[in-house]
Please model this.
Amino acid sequence: MAPQKRSKRPMLLSHSRPRIVKSKDAALSAKATRTLIRTHHRLLKVRAQALAAGDEARVSSIDAQIEANGGLESYQIASKLGQSMDRGGDSSKVLIDWIKPQLKQWNKAIPKLRVLEVGALSTKNACSTHPALDVTRIDLNSQEPGILKQDFMERPLPSSDDERFNIISLSLVLNYVPDATGRGEMLKHCVKFLTSKCPIELVPSLFMVLPIACVDNSRYLNEERLGEILTCLGFRLAQSKRTSKLVFHLWEHTGTYAPKAFKKEELRSGKTRNNFAVILNKK
Model:
């Protein structure tokens, strides 16, 4: 039998997720939370590979494993716990702290700054409750009113600056995308949704949070390579912060959008490395 052809087109994020499975809203320990999230990410990656290969039997088998692991809803419950005060807090507080000097310029007589929060889990985090910010929240599986159920990669492209944003937040979102090419496409997609028109002196910005292992323990990505990728998209690093588990970046879009190719190449060797990568295509 001839081998089936693999699709070269990156999958939409919504196509990489199995159907939502209801789970019991039970309290999870920090260890159990991390285990659930890691298992979910691993299964999604394997599922994406099986889907690209056209192996429907394998996809069904992995879907059953994802169900057994609690499904998307359990993953989101774990993610919410990860944002609770006893698990490191709300990541958007870092964003607010970084742009606090600019926000002091705002007053009620001028329009609010527009923020797009991709992968939103709450309407009560720091950016959502700040009076200077008008936040549009989207997620594949809306958990509460005020969060639009939408795949960012399927969001219609803006036709005017009124549909663009001053800030885009990708907090623990890029690492959810199951394939390296899809991650590169998401970063390119962000540029299309940023506007340089702002009622205060604020450079259009991308706020990004990743698990620290994505840049510190990957065979194919480190902070230098991530910086090279974002630089060719017109970004410059304005702020950065590290904790024991996360890396926070604020990227200002100030340059020319000129994507170039970044392939998946080994930057570090070692059996304990993970395979997180970002592939960028010129087109």
Q: What stands out?
A: Residues 143 and 179 are 25 Å apart (CA to CA). The radius of gyration is 19 Å.
